[in-house]
Amino acid sequence: MSELLKPENLQMMKRSNDNFEWFARHYDELKQKYKKKYIAIDNGDVIAEDSDHLQLIEYLNRQFHDTRAILIQYIPEKTI
Amino acid sequence: MKIIGFRIGNGYIRPTLLCYNPIIFSAVSFRIDTGCDITTLSLNDALNLKLDFKQLGKPFDILGGGGIVPTYAMLNCMLGFDLGNCILSEKLDSLHVSSPIITEANVEVIKSIPSLLGMDFLQRYTIKADNNYMYLER
pTM of the full predicted structure? Predict the structure, then answer.
């Protein structure tokens, strides 16, 4: 529990929530543009896309020191 | 106390998942699913978290919509929620992690399955919704 209260972790939780809210608000346009792809979202933007999930994860790990708040989302052809 | 989620067709929330064995401290999106008994981490999210299935012990079989799925149980996990003015942490007795066998026929479905917040968690709350948001209240 105390882990949650560290300032850097509180910041991470807020950022990850903001990323998901942005995704929810832009879902309709994202599903048109990135159908059948994995996208990574951070700070109000799609920062990477790939049809291969593991390649996207590897790319993010190379580019960013901390990827915990980044939202990685698959855009399915049809919403389940 | 109110946890706010978002609607993308269904309702979703994005807590921080904490676990000490294996060590995980990362945000995960869960679909609110009252038809699911146990909270379950999807294969997509297991990969996002770089989860090593070998660390999770021996799998057991669960019969789901797509047939029998080898499933692992992560014990003593917690979900952390930023409520704006305070942090709420909720214990999960068990978080299931499914490891389905991927075939050409089911790959698209498996990629599309999100992590599911099941009734083991949801029974503690009343679920409400409006146009854009979901609310878990108690």
Answer: 0.89
